[in-house]
């Protein structure tokens, strides 16, 4: 059979419709195919969005590009056995943030040598879910009796330019009931001098949301929920009040249309509030209200996606993506084909009100697939 020549335009059009796993295989088909798939402009035009869940071995991802009628492959496994930096024994895992297709993970693990104290190691790892490549950027120790640290809260963002990537870390100190915070600079691979915050608020969640040069965290202060904002360039903090009613089990931060948003429970469904002006608490506006025609389940928002979409789930492990621009939703039921159903049922049925524990295991994040190497984000 004679060889059939496929033009590059046709080839790119076909390959752009494929999920990441076949692309990895097809890079090995020929040098020409590898060159086409690895092209920076091809990946940008493809812009395949995925949602990553912090379930252990393997990760689970939602492929947003699958049509609503095709539920069989909307959720996929992402094994990380090929990554030397993701340890076999993991106690907890937090998805901190994402940039250029790279996801920052905080991976908690016990030490190699047993310790009589409550002692965990926390590795901050840059990870590419598409290529499975990873790089450890920082390793931290946690002692609850020696250093008197109870927990960490993180943020991942950049200042004036994307080359100014920072990791912000808050360490809660049991003895003084306050936070010690400092910043890891990926350019110099070093931590800044620790500073202290006033002991009058607590974080509601364990990772911040990055938007337009600012990191945002939900905090609880004097029985009121607020948002702590950090200007990453100036390293200056401000506190933003939430004037609208808040259901602590439903409260979720994200961004829609370039504006910071919160998703809250209302009497009839859910409300989406937008902060129209950066760090202006007087600019909160209720932009959307919606509800589902799905009875018998209490849904929780767990991730704000691109293009005004919101990922929801419930105790029966049904996933729904609501589109605010079209006022419509689609359900995803393919998780039944995975082996995480028992684990997830326990997580969602035991959600507690108070502290960050209720968000830690269910926090998901949207990223855009890329060939960027984690090593390219560390400059020394």
Report the uncertain regions.
Answer: 345-361
Categorize the overall geometry: globular
Give the rounded overall mean pLDDT: 76
Number of strands: 26
* Gyration radius, rounded: 21 Å
Spatial separation of the terminal alpha carbons: 52 Å
CATH topology of the largest domain: the name is Neuraminidase
Could you tell me the strand content as a percent range?
A: 35-45%
Secondary-structure-based class equals mainly beta
Largest sheet: 5 strands, antiparallel
Helicity level:
10-25%
| CATH class categorisation of the largest domain | Mainly Beta
Pfam family, one: F-box
Protein name: F-box domain-containing protein
Q: Which keywords apply here?
A:
Neuraminidase, single chain, 380 residues, mainly beta, 5-stranded antiparallel β-sheet
Write up what this structure looks like.
- Residues 6-46 form the F-box domain.
- This is F-box domain-containing protein.
- The chain is built from six helices and 26 strands.
- By secondary structure, the chain is mainly beta.
- It folds into two domains: 1-46, Up-down Bundle (Monooxygenase); 47-377, Kelch-type beta propeller (Neuraminidase), CATH 2.120.10.80.
- The strands form six sheets. Strands 8, 9, 10, 11 and 12 form a five-stranded antiparallel β-sheet that branches. Strands 13, 14, 15, 16 and 17 form a five-stranded antiparallel β-sheet that branches. Strands 3-2-1-26 form a four-stranded antiparallel β-sheet, with no helix packed on it.
- A hairpin with an 8-residue loop joins strand 20 and strand 21 (284-290).
- It is globular, with a radius of gyration of 21 Å.
- It starts with 7 loop residues before the first helix and ends in a 12-residue tail after the last strand.
């Amino acid at each position: 059979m004679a060889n059939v020549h496929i033009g590059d335009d046709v080839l790119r059009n076909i390959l752009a419709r494929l999920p990441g796993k076949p692309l990895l295989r097809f890079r090995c088909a020929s040098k020409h195919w590898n060159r086409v798939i690895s092209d920076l402009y091809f990946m940008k035009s493809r812009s395949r969005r995925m949602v990553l869940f912090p379930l252990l071995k393997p990760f689970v991802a939602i492929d947003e590009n699958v049509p609503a009628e095709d539920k069989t492959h909307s959720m996929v496994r992402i094994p990380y056995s090929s990554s030397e930096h993701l340890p076999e024994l993991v106690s907890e895992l937090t998805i901190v943030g994402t940039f250029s297709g790279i996801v920052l993970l905080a991976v908690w693990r016990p030490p190699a040598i047993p310790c009589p104290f409550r002692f965990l190691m926390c590795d901050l790892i840059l990870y590419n879910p598409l290529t499975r490549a990873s790089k450890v950027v920082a390793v931290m120790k946690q002692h609850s009796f020696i250093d008197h640290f109870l927990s960490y809260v993180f943020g991942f963002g950049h200042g004036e330019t994307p080359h100014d990537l920072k990791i912000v870390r808050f360490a809660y100190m049991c003895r003084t009931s306050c936070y010690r915070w400092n910043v890891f600079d990926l350019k110099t691979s070093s931590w800044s001098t620790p500073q202290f915050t006033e002991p009058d608020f607590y974080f509601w969640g364990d990772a911040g949301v990055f938007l337009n040069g600012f990191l945002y965290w939900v905090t609880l202060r004097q029985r009121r929920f607020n948002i702590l904002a950090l200007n990453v360039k100036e390293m200056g903090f401000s506190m933003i009040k939430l004037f609208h009613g808040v259901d602590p089990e439903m409260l979720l931060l994200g961004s829609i249309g370039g504006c910071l948003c919160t998703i809250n429970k209302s009497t009839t469904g859910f409300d989406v509030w937008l902060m129209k002006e950066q760090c202006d608490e007087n600019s909160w506006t209720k932009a959307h209200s919606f509800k589902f025609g799905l009875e018998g389940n209490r849904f929780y928002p767990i991730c704000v996606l691109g293009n005004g979409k919101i990922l929801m789930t419930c105790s029966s492990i049904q996933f729904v993506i609501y589109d605010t621009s079209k006022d419509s939703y689609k359900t995803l039921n393919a998780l039944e084909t995975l082996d995480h159903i028992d684990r997830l049922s326990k997580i969602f049925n035991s959600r507690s009100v108070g502290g960050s524990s209720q968000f830690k295991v269910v926090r998901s994040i949207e990223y855009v697939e890329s060939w960027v190497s984690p090593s390219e984000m560390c400059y020394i």
